[in-house]
Amino acid sequence: MNLTFSTSRNNLYRGLSRSIPVCLGYFPIGFVYGVMAAGVGLNPLETTLMSILVFAGSAQFIAVGMIGEQLAVITIALTTFLVNLRHLLMSAALAPCLGHLSRLQQALFAYQLTDETFALHSLDFRKEEKPPAVRIITTNMAAHLCWVAGSLAGVWTGGLLTDLEMLGLDFTLAAMFIFLLVIQITTVKYILVVLLAMLISLLLFKYLGGHWYIIITTLLAATAGFFLENRRATAAERVKEQ
Amino acid sequence: MTYSTETILLLIVTMAGATYFSRLLPLLFLARCKLPITVERWLSHVPVAVLAALLGPALFLPKGEFTLELSRNPHFWAAIPTFAAAIYTRNMFITVLVGVAGTALIRFFLM
After folding, report:
1. Are A180 and A115 in contact (CB under 8 A)?
2. Which of chain B's residues have a Cβ under 8 Å away from the Cβ of A77?
3. Where are the alpha helices (DSSP H) in chain B?
4. Residue B58 touches partner A, C-beta closer than 8 Å
5. Is the dihedral of CA A74, A76, A82, A85 positive or negative?
6. Interface predicted TM-score (ipTM) of this complex, two decimals
7. B25, B52, B90 member nearest A88 (Cβ)
8. How far is the C-alpha of A230 from the C-alpha of B10, rounded, in Å?
């Protein structure tokens, strides 16, 4: 009993320390979101509620922009759906590592699955058979809390900051994606996938428009990466046989 | 603005549902079964592909138009030291700081 208690406390601590890099990114980005939300007329309650219930950085930024343009609820909701369809793939990618969690824990984990928590966990899970539920959920909770706190701070001080662009804060989300991308590139084979995905995303964004480009690019680039890897693997086997 | 509080609440709840759907569905159906190794290998390419897809237009197509001109696309130029910071420090906070400061400096000197 004592042992389980100290293990779970240890996992709690490890989960918290693992969340620090994400929190340091989430607070300022949440802050920027809060400032932008205040700018289009959302009140602190609405702004924070969106961060609590939706918890999706890029979708929230896009939604705030669309609220500013006075678009219909259904348009904004559909865009959110399309932009976040990529989470289907992330959820599927992590699913095999989470079979030991209870249904409730899985449901909670899914609720807090973002690009950032995904990037962090997918790195950790490569080294682990059964990642402890307490640790991963603690990490997610702390990250979510920082996101909400940042949003709240942003919407409160929103009126004071008028020019986010002069401060460079419009680059925060992209900078975070750059970091997450760099730490994911653990082998050279991924560099090709990255370059290919960038090229495809540019073409689709430019000529297809809308928000389908994210999911289509991901499917195409991941498939290309998969086949390139397979070809290289079979070539290597052939060399070995000879 | 023209949205009522009810409309905003409806919007938030719909967005939450739309987001949770994608996050939950695969986990509920796939967690208990072992995926074939080919599927797992395909999925291992997803993280980098998603992030690159999100970054492409953000870095090369400001307002939907391709340009690398410093004044019209400061994000592209700020991305260069940002990538360097990510590679050498492996620290999210420093990376974001370099990117934000870089963007601010470019805008400051162009004014």
Report:
1. yes
2. 11, 14-15, 18
3. 5-30, 37-43, 46-60, 74-89, 92-110
4. yes
5. negative
6. 0.88
7. B25
8. 47
pTM of the model: 0.80
Give per-residue pLDDT as tens, A58-71: 889 889 988 987 88
Distance CA B84, CA A215 (A): 27
**Contact at 8 Å (CB) between A50 and A171?**
no
**CB pair distance less than 8 Å for A217 and B25:** no
B88, with CB counted inside 10 A (0-12, 13-18, 19+), is exposed
pLDDT digits (tens, 9 = 90+) for A125-169: 888 888 899 999 999 999 999 999 999 999 998 767 667 777 888
- How many residues would you count in chain A? 242
- A28 to B96: CB separation less than 8 angstroms, yes or no: yes
CB atoms B15 and A76 under 8 Å:
yes
Contacts of B15 in chain A (CB under 8 A): 50, 53-54, 56, 59, 63, 76-77, 80
Residue A45 has pLDDT above 60, yes or no: yes
- One digit per residue, the tens of pLDDT, for chain B of length 111 reads 578 889 999 999 999 999 999 999 999 888 777 778 888 888 888 888 988 998 999 999 988 889 999 989 999 999 999 999 999 998 888 898 999 999 999 999 887
Residue B11 is nearest to which of A73, A101, A199, comparing CB atoms? Answer: A73
Tokens encoding A59: 């979708």
